[in-house]
């Protein structure tokens, strides 16, 4: 018989949010398996090192996960805990997602200095965000608003808002919620999905490990949420089917309907927000992957392909 696992090393990025999320997972794991030792290993990623440069200059693909994946392959950590939306559609050979814990509320939120909602922001107000997806969708409903690139950790962003460098921020609800009541309390408005459709995977965590670690997969199955895994699969297969060359902003959100259906909603938007394609497709939960791929194919045929090529 194989020797039972005595210790699990959890790889995490160093940001406050990443560490909080990883601790959340490690804590639940520890409660399930008190006899197994748990260790957090902080790994600096390209995305963290390049924090002050705009996303567009660093290239976003996998910038928050690469170093964690290298550590998994080298065996210096056992599992990596990621925000699912930071994971590129294709994983490196030899690695797989072994667990999707229950997902948090996936929506984006507005944190405004004075206004009480997006509609109430004065004309020409300045939104601080580094996300092209948020910028394009918000510009589509409020073409008068202005945008500034705002990076750095949440502390820094909230300070810049307070100092008046912008009038409002747009962030993921999930991150603020996980950081606790003090952060969540800053939220002004949860943005409806009709205004700002979240990024594929937003609000979900993904636990990655080496494919051959069946022992870990078995242990983590107790933390796995099949509902969350299903919606994530639909969103990620949509993203993958739109293609790696897709540089225009997209949003995708799946939800479960009744006992056996999954509904996927998606948008493809031009960077200036003037063109916005929305479509939705419902299929079987057991076919979540096809739901994503089918909707992507249909949207490409109905104008997304032209839109993507125009902005390459
Ligand atoms: N881009 C960084 C990032 N990756 C995941 C989250 C939020 C948490 C989540 O989506 O689970 C954030 C911050 C944000 O977008 O506000």
Describe the protein in words.
By secondary structure, this protein is α/β, with parallel strands linked by helices. The chain folds into three domains: 7-102 and 204-224, Periplasmic binding protein-like II (D-Maltodextrin-Binding Protein, domain 2, 3-Layer(aba) Sandwich), CATH 3.40.190; 108-190, 3-Layer(aba) Sandwich (D-Maltodextrin-Binding Protein, domain 2), CATH 3.40.190.10; 235-310, Double Stranded RNA Binding Domain (2-Layer Sandwich). The protein contains eleven helices and 13 strands. The protein has helices spanning 16-32, 46-49, 55-58, 66-74, 132-141, 154-162, 173-179, 181-184, 214-220, 226-242, 288-310, and strands spanning 7-12, 37-42, 79-83, 95-99, 108-112, 126-128, 146-148, 168-172, 189-190, 205-210, 250-257, 261-269, 276-284. The chain has a five-stranded mixed sheet, with helices on both faces. A five-stranded mixed sheet has the order 7-6-8-5-9, with helices on both faces. A three-stranded antiparallel sheet has the order 11-12-13. Helix 1 crosses helix 7 and helix 10 runs parallel beside helix 11 (288-310). Mean pLDDT is 93; it is low at 54-59. It binds the ligand NCc1[nH]cc(CCC(=O)O)c1CC(=O)O.
Question: What is the strand and helix layout of this fold?
Answer:
Elements: E1 7-12, H1 16-32, E2 37-42, H2 46-49, H3 55-58, H4 66-74, E3 79-83, E4 95-99, E5 108-112, E6 126-128, H5 132-141, E7 146-148, H6 154-162, E8 168-172, H7 173-179, H8 181-184, E9 189-190, E10 205-210, H9 214-220, H10 226-242, E11 250-257, E12 261-269, E13 276-284, H11 288-310
Parallel strand pairs: 1-2, 1-3, 6-7, 6-8
Antiparallel strand pairs: 3-10, 4-10, 5-8, 5-9, 11-12, 12-13
Helix pairs in contact: 1-7, 10-11
The ligand NCc1[nH]cc(CCC(=O)O)c1CC(=O)O binds at residues 83, 85-86, 171-172, 174-175, 202-203.
């Amino acid at each position: 018989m194989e020797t039972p696992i005595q210790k699990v090393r959890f790889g995490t990025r160093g940001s406050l949010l990443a560490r909080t999320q990883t601790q959340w997972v490690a804590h639940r794991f520890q409660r399930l398996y008190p006899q197994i030792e748990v260790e957090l290993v902080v790994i600096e990623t390209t995305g963290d090192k390049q924090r002050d440069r705009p996303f567009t200059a660093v290239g976003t693909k996998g910038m928050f996960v690469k170093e964690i994946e290298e550590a998994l392959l080298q065996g210096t950590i056992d599992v990596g805990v990621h925000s699912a939306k930071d994971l590129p559609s294709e994983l490196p050979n030899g690695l797989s997602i072994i667990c999707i814990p229950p997902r948090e509320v996936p929506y984006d939120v507005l944190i405004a200095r004075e206004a009480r909602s997006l509609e109430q922001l004065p004309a020409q107000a300045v939104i601080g965000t580094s996300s092209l997806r948020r910028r394009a969708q918000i510009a589509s409903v409020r073409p008068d608003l202005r945008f500034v690139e705002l990076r750095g950790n949440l502390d820094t962003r909230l300070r810049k808002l307070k100092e008046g460098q912008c009038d409002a921020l747009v962030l993921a609800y999930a991150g603020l919620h996980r950081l606790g009541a003090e952060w969540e309390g800053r939220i002004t408005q949860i943005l409806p999905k009709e205004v700002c459709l979240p990024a594929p995977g937003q609000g979900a965590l993904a636990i990655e490990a080496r494919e051959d670690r069946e022992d870990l997969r078995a242990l983590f199955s107790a933390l796995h949420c099949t509902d969350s895994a299903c919606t994530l699969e639909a969103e990620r297969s949509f993203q993958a089917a739109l293609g790696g060359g897709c540089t225009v902003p997209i949003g995708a959100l799946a939800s479960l309907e009744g006992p056996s259906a999954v509904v996927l909603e998606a948008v493809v938007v031009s960077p200036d927000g003037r063109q916005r394609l929305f479509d939705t497709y419902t299929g079987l939960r057991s076919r979540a992957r096809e739901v994503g791929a089918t909707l992507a194919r249909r949207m490409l045929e109905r104008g997304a392909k032209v839109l993507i090529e125009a902005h390459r």
